[in-house]
Each structure stands twice: as structure tokens, then as C-alpha cells.
Amino acid sequence: MNQPLPADVASFAATGAIGKPSPESYLPAGIKMCGRCVLDSRVSGIKFDQEGICNHCKIHDRLDRIFPTGDEGEAFLQKMARKIRASGKGKKYDCIVGLSGGRDTSYCLYVTKRLGLRPLALHFDNGWDSAISKNNIRRMCSKLDVDLECVIADWEESRELTNSTFYASVPYIDLTDDVGIITSLYRTAAREGIHWIIHSHSFRTEGINPLLWNYVDARYVRHLVDKFCRMPLKHFQNADLGRVLYWMLVKRIKVFTITNYYKDSGAEIDQFLKSEFGWEDTGGWHFDNEIFGLQCAYARRKFGIDWRSVELAALVREGDLTRDEAAAKLREVPLIEDDRFVRYALKKQGISPDEFERLLKEPPKYFTDYPSYYPLIRLMKWPIWLASRLQYLPPHTYEKYFDV
Ligand SMILES: [Zn+2]
User: Fold this and answer.
1) Phi, psi (rounded to 5 degrees) for 40
2) Domain ranges across the chain
3) CA 190 – CA 93 distance, rounded (Å)
4) Any residues with CB less than 8 A from the CB of 139 and at least 6 apart, and which?
5) Could you tell me the distance, in angstroms and rounded to a whole number, from the CA of residue 345 to the centre of ligand 1?
């Protein structure tokens, strides 16, 4: 007589399913995953269509149609390069490139030179650069013969602004870097008479983070400074709306997101940077920025945010990872969240482990709990769409504010 099968084996056999469990089978009950990428219903603002495909996949496809790569992308890059060169005639530089020392910005600087442009590289240092990324910046600029301008934030102020985000109980703590790089790029471009900022965010390989995760605007930042900073910030420069409009409309500084027109993922790019420039891999995901481990651990423990999910989902859409591979990565806590990185960053921030545990227990808040320009931005839907498409703003700005 045949022995009865155990219940779970019997139910598996009854479905006729063969092979590995699906990524969905690992999810907690009630959580739904996009049928194409790996984003699931825990991601704020996510929507699914009738086929179970998420809005992030739809945005990817829309932007993919607008911004071609391959021969068409290269033709557009050449056309833009002619325009940018003409705008810089008689000047020392015709564009400015933000350089972090990571892979994306390093490759972006190379492409800028390949197109015959004369860039000024700008690095904003908020005190969290790894030694490898600093070396990469020097190597890239030296081998490509590009001048480098470093803007170094006042460390005490930068630390205080970061801590203000903990006290505000919001998920994104690294806003000193975001504000610093924006103001430094525009201010330096205005001083040098440069009309083009070369931007290297790629919707294809980085995706677009939900607005609630990392919203930043000048009014919101000003409020955090006024309410939560315990010392006056004398050197910090906010990206005030009036100044940004001045840089855009009076100084006529535009943004060209160059990475939208070429494929910037895959091991061959790392290999190329290593062999041509002596560039070094920082050793792990976002290791170029040493506060990111604390950012990720804090967001995961307090808000249930996995900071890798948007990027891994993007790589699945691009075919650089399979859905199974990306889902398997998401089931593991990344190395950057190792306790050693987190404790190092907390010590540098002057926050004790006990204080950190207390901050984790404070009720979670979002930018929507504080004053911001967001209500005004909602009213400017179509001007922002136009500015995104006319290169006054990065092209995914519209999608970021209205679609995710
Ligand atoms: Zn999706």
C-alpha cells in the first residue's frame, strides 16, 4: 500500500508545478508583487494594472520610448554635443559634470569627453566619501585631462542637518548630499558662464524612487533646519526656489541627462573603467557613500523600505538580472547594512546606539507631515512636464512628482 504524502508535498504535487518556488511564494500573506519586476505592494504609491504590472514598469516603458539608446541615442548625443559646444564657444568649459567617484558618474564623465565636450568636473564632499571613491575621482580627472572643482561642506553643519532628519523622524537622511550637489553645480555653472549641467541619473538602471521615500525641496529643508537643528547653519546653502529659477531663467542653465541615451549597465562598463582609467570598484552597492549603510538600515527597520528594490526592479526590466535573481537579493539583508557600517556612521554622527534605538521607535513621519512646496508643485503639473521635456529639469522629474 502506498504511504500517504505529507500535506505540503501533496498540495504541491496536485498543482502540477515543477521547479523552483516563484519569487511571490516567499512574500508575506497579502503582499502582491508586480508580474514583471520585483516591486511589491509595500512600495508606497505603487499601482497595478489588470494584468498585475506596476506603474513603475509603465513609466519605464514610456521613458524608454521617449529616450532611445543605440544608434538613435548616439545620433541624439552627437546633436546635443554640437549644441553644448556652441553654447561654450570662447569659454574655458562648455558643461559641468557632477562626479562622485562611483561607476555611473565616472562613466558619464568619460562619455562627455568622448563626445568632444570640455567639461568641468565638480565633486561635492559632505564628509562621507570612501577612500576608493576619492582615488577614482582623481584618476578619472587626471586620465581624461578634466579640471576638478571640489566643494567641501562644513562638517559640523552637514552632520547637524543629517541629524535633523532623524529628529524629524523621516525616511531620507542623506539630503545634505542632494542639496549640496544641486546648489554647487548651479552656482559653479553660473560663475563660469556654463549653460549645461550634465546629469547622470538613469531611469533604466536606477528606476525612480517613490516620492515619500526621498522627497527634498527648499521649503521642507528650511523647516527641518529651523525646527530640528540645534545650532545655526552659517555656511549651508539651500536650493531656494528663487535662486533655482534665477539660475534656470536668467543664467539659462539647463540639464542634460546624458545617461538616458546610452546603455550604462553591465560588467563590461566596470571592466572598461578599470582597464582604461585604473578605476576601482568600491566593493559593494553604494559603498562610495559611507553613510548609506545607516540610511538603508534606518529606512528598513523604521519604515520597512528596502532601498535596493527600485534599482533591482529596474535591472530586471533591462534584462541585467532575472526576476528570480533580484527577488533572491531582496530576501537577503545587504552587506552595506552590516552592524559595523551602521555603528561607524552613528559614531561619526554623534548618535549613541541607545539613542538610535530610541529614534527608531519614534512614530514614522514623511515630508507630508511638514511644510513643503509640494502643494505648489501639484498645481504646476503641466509647467513641470514641459520643463522636464525641454531639459530645464531632469526628464524624469515629472514622473517622480506625479506618477510614483
Ligand atoms: Zn513592475
Assistant:
1) -130, 180
2) 68-286+371-402
3) 12
4) 277, 278, 279
5) 33
The answer to which of 188-202, 218-232, 342-356, 373-387 has the lowest mean pLDDT is 373-387
Give the Å distance between the CA of 262 and the centre of ligand 1: 22
Contact present, 112 and 198 (Cβ < 8 Å): yes
Helix, strand, coil shares of the chain as percentages rounded to 5? Answer: 55, 10, 40
Q: Parallel, antiparallel, or unpaired: how do β-strands 119-125 and 95-98 relate?
A: parallel
Sheet holding 119-125, edge to edge: 147-152, 119-125, 95-98, 196-199, 254-257
325 CA to centre of ligand 1 in angstroms? 15
> Which pLDDT does position 8 carry in this prediction?
56
Which segments of 1-66 are extended strands (E)? none
Please say if the pLDDT value at position 1 is more than 50.
Answer: no
Closest CA to 104 of 249, 236, 286, 363: 286
What are the tens digits of pLDDT across the range 14-29?
A: 554 556 778 887 788 8
* Inter-residue contact 129 to 143 (CB < 8 Å): no
CA 360 – ligand 1 centroid, Å = 30
For 184-212, how does the pLDDT look when each residue is reduced to its tens digit (9 = 90+)? 999 999 999 999 999 998 899 899 999 99
CATH architecture for the domain at 68-286+371-402? 3-Layer(aba) Sandwich (3.40)
